[in-house]
Sequence to fold (850 residues):
Amino acid sequence: MFLNKLSKVLLLSLVLFQCHFLPVFAQQHKGDLYEDLEFKGSHIIYKGEVIKLGPQAFFIDGQLSNKEVSKHNYVYNSINEASKHLANGTEASPMVLYIAPWVYWVDNPDDPEIRLPKENENTPFGLEITCEWLKFQGLTNNPENVIIACNRGQTMGAKGNFTMLNIKGDGTCAENITFGNYCNIDLVYPLNPELNREKRGSAIVQAQLIFSNGDKVLARNTRFISRLNLGPFWGSKRTLFERCHFESTDDALNGSAVYLNCTFGIYSSKPFGGTRGTGAVFLNSDIESFCRDNQYFVKGHGPVTTVDTRFSAKDLNYIGWRDIPDTEARYYQYNVSLNTNPIFIGKDDAFATVDMTNKNILNAYRFEYKNKVVYNTYNLLRGHDDWDPMGIKNIVVEAEKATGNNYTNVPTLLTISPTQKTLETGKDNLLLKPTVHRFGNFEFQEEKVFWDLASEYKSLVKLEVKEDGTCLVIPTSNNNETKQVVITAYTDSGLESACVLYIAPSFIDPPSFTKLPEISKPKDGVLQLNYVLDMSFEDQSLITWYRCNDAQGNHPIEIAVSRFNKPLKTYELSTGDIGYYIMASVSPKHVRCDAGLAKTTLFKKVISAKDIKKSANILIPNLENMSAKYQPEVLSGFWVLDSYAPLDTQEFNWESDNSRDPWYYGEGVNGAANNLGFVQNTKGARMRYTPVGKAFGAMKISFTAIPSKTAGQGFSSARAQYMDVGIKMDIKQMNGYALRLIRTTKYSDATDFVLMKYENGNATPISEPVSTSCYRPNCKITVELKNNKLIVHAENTEEYFTEHDNSEVVKVVDIQAEVTPNNYGGLSFQHTGTVGSGATLIKDLKIEWF
Fold:
């Protein structure tokens, strides 16, 4: 009986706690939840200070019930409700949200509804706020005690890159707060474990925190927690993070901010997608990298400065600014270390790094005065209105007067416009304009700029420096080839910049033909194009081959082209040429001229089967010379190149783009750099082929796939981004079978391989998916259909690291499925991912019919 009564008492107590009727109860039973906080109805007492509540001072406590908050003005139990009643603040008197320890969900994590962007917008938001000079004030010393939370991301509870807050207005401030998107990480709340919550999913997706359009944004003792696309006040102008902590992977940090005394946990190699304007600055900060091998700062463009920055890591071999820095890029460092050892960032591209040691430019960021280091946030953030969030103006001005050094007006960026240009000797001149900026993109006119030209370039250009600091470049090249020239600019303080010019010789008229183009009859299955040009230079003519319907050259379809200044004077015939007339055009060109007017020639005899020496059962396309031109006609023996949005991707609201060629032959980017192959040029790029013939049996496709992504994820996101490799296809009606390689929400470092059946363009799985880490450079893939079985093998030829157990995510893919035979012989590649850093380069393609 005693135990039964005790159980009832405990149950009643728990109910009272869950309903949050009395904050005093929480204070008694959660002693450190409130710390030194008392709620008195019309005011609060925090650490002995009385804070009167009013139109610009709200109290928010998640433990208060709706009934309790209804009794008081300016008291709320949710961020969302409080945001409905905000009034604009001023710099002197901001609008303040005093927030008690708790976990505040701005978006209901239990609501199964998928969050969508507003009409004509791309980003779904948890909460949108418009308020000038708004401050989020956590009533705690430990920012982990006050959490503003959401747990949605791209494809996980949202369509689009879900973003917790969109704040419009200057002067946004946060102190003693955690902003967390717990889509891909667990929320752990030691003050009340009942508020813990497991992540929505393990795959790392775009799960963002805060957009901001404001100036003078400040965060102190604040934590920003997510992984991909963290987004701490993205879009803000002058921004200071002081004593803040960040956890993220790629494309994450604010690219126009000052990070002072901050800490970082970096879980991927490029925390900045790019930086803007005068860029990002690290002052006296600690960066813990969880990457292996290489750590970089930026994926794209923009400056970064690191001062008194300490890296720690277990598996890093190299720290660079960017994997391949632009020749004109400059980054700045002072006193940087890795595991306590001094390092020079980007030593493999040393031209891009400016070491500020013993240079006056260092005064823009730090100086020593009275035996103390002063981090010069006043110089960086003052703008035109003397913003001084750290309150150091007086000591900076005092130090400047005492030492005679400039500490209050030191610029941080020198740029040259334009950054790249091609100039022809004897025809073109170029005026280079330097611009000096103080931090925050404030143009500065008082710094003199000097110009420099290395000795190896002096025979190629002449520089004339004008009184206004501009520099006139006059090409003087006597070379036959176009040469790269780097022109540098600098200031006495230590700023540097560069531009890259491509100096061509004086161009002359294209050469004339002394013998017009003519195609000789086939020899060993190869057509030879003959012509003679009146020139002494090496031939770089542009040659294009076509199939035509008749001897008049009607309905020409481009089939092969010359690339990289290598004229394609031969064409190997294949069964696809049977019944067509072959035409070639020649645009005469050499190193000293632009391409001239094309002359065409047509082989007057239709191609017949006896002209073909190449096996009809094996096709190894010459990708280097294969046309990449948009070609939508489905014809036997022709490649069909277009862009297409499959039905199973259209929920993500994108359209195919056939206004430009869907593929290109050339070098890939990121993981596909230094490789040549066919690469997607538009989202939805599709490449298909039907062999000549009526019925086909067994078939095999083999190729090397080199994704731009290097971590095994293959594609930019899990928004139905995949590549289908079709085999035994009727490419006109899109019937047949395929291997699908797709990024899912299961993993951020693995893709799924699954076998598909196509019926009139609709693809359905016919096997269980296999998750693999092998889809990264260089992945060898074979897809084969024989004996009524669709068989796939894939493995990577490179050594790579994966954290997965092989039973969960395999390194070698071997899957098969029973299929119904058909007589088709077509193949297809369909890529629905983004291009550039989300594309895949295809090479070593071979198709066999048995």
The chain is about 5% helix and 40% strand.
